[in-house]
Amino acid sequence: MNAVKRYGVDMGNSHMWRWAARKITTHISMKMRCMLVAWLTKTQLYFDVMIDESTDSDGSQNLIIYIRVEIDGDPVSFFWGLVKLRKTTSAADITDALLDDLIASNWLGLKRDHMVMKWVGFATGGASALTGPNRLAEQFPLIMSTHCVAHRLQLIVDDTVKKRAISIKFEDAVRDIYSYYSR
Fold first, then answer.
1. pTM exceeds cut of 0.85
2. What is the DSSP track for the chain?
3. How do the pLDDT tens digits run along the chain, 183 residues long?
4. End-to-end CA distance of the chain
5. Which among 69, 104, 141, 157 is most buried, taking Cβ atoms within 10 Å?
6. Residue 58, by phi and psi: left (phi above 0), alpha (psi -120 to 50) or beta?
């Protein structure tokens, strides 16, 4: 903004407020999702859905969703959205939240028949609550469920660290240092 002001453009200050930034961000994200839906529908590309669960600083559970397609032989991921989980973090509730956000109830979602024909992959962090592949496979027969390689590698590292006493002491020391300085 300072660069724009240097050239004499009067930007005002109404966009500087938090509610204005939220409104602008929401508008841009809705337009981007609308463009992604139109593009996926037009190109008829097969797609994967990648999800993971996260927790906000206030303790609320969220589901992050990405759509992945292949373009000219390369995988390309598009951010779909961040969904606040209203109920529990069970497989059923996560699957319901995912499908509610993906499927068109308006122009911001995909049509169910398009998803049945083109949804071929589903990747998660591997937690049983996240996978819910059986519920999805019943509705979308082309889906192949996979475990995220990065999460699997993290599990391997965790198992290795737990087996070495020095690693446990090091992890405890780092955790203590973090706890001390984060107060």
1. no
2. -HHHHHTT----SGGGSHHHHHHHHHHHHHHHHHHHHHHHHHH---EEEEEEEEE-TTS-EEEEEEEEEEETTEEEEEEEEEEE--S--SHHHHHHHHHHHHB-SSTTSB-HHHHHHHEEEEEE---HHHH-HHHHHHH-TT-EEEE-HHHHHHHHHHHHHHT-HHHHHHHHHHHHHHHHHT-
3. 566 677 777 767 766 678 888 888 888 988 998 999 999 999 999 999 999 888 888 888 899 999 999 999 999 999 998 888 887 777 788 888 889 989 876 667 889 888 999 999 988 876 655 556 677 888 898 988 887 777 677 777 777 777 777 777 888 888 899 888 877
4. 34
5. 69
6. alpha
pLDDT at 105: 66
Break the chain into its structural domains and give their ranges.
Answer: 39-147, 149-183
Give the CATH number of domain 39-147: 3.30.420
**Residue 123, number of CB atoms within 10 A of its CB:** 21
Residue whose structure tokens are 């519920």:
135
Would you mind telling me the total number of residues written for the chain in this entry? 183
98 burial class (0-12, 13-18, 19+ CB within 10 angstroms)? Answer: buried
Residue with structure tokens 């240092």? 177
